[in-house]
Design goal:
This protein has 101 residues and is an all-alpha fold. It is built from four helices and no strands. The protein has helices at 2-32, 38-52, 55-65, 72-99.
């Protein structure tokens, strides 16, 4: 049972890592390619549901400070890293629990 849970967590960890690379690619493409580029539109569709969760917080903070910067992507990356760290902690816990006699 522990072995199955470990592999499920491992797969989820890989998906989180892949999603963070997709988010990074989308962010870099936003600086260099047209917003109508098909790959950029595809990556934005994939990342926007998660990044959009943080947009109200970003708007609230930046409007108070008078900054014309969207920090939603930064907040999303931080949240994704926290989730990934928690999943890695769970993986280590399951792995060590499975190793005990």
């Amino acid at each position: 049972m522990n072995n199955t849970i470990f592999w499920i967590l491992y797969a989820f960890s890989l998906l989180l890592r892949l999603y963070s690379y997709v988010m990074l690619a989308q962010a870099l493409m936003s600086w260099f390619v047209s917003p109508f580029n098909k790959l950029y539109v595809f990556l934005r569709r994939i990342t926007e549901p998660f990044v959009g969760l943080f947009r109200p917080l970003s708007n609230r903070l930046t409007s108070r400070m008078g900054m014309p910067i969207d920090l939603a992507f930064l907040f999303a990356v931080i949240a994704l890293q926290i989730i990934a760290a928690f999943v890695d902690f769970l993986m280590r816990t399951v792995w060590t629990a499975g190793m005990l006699p």
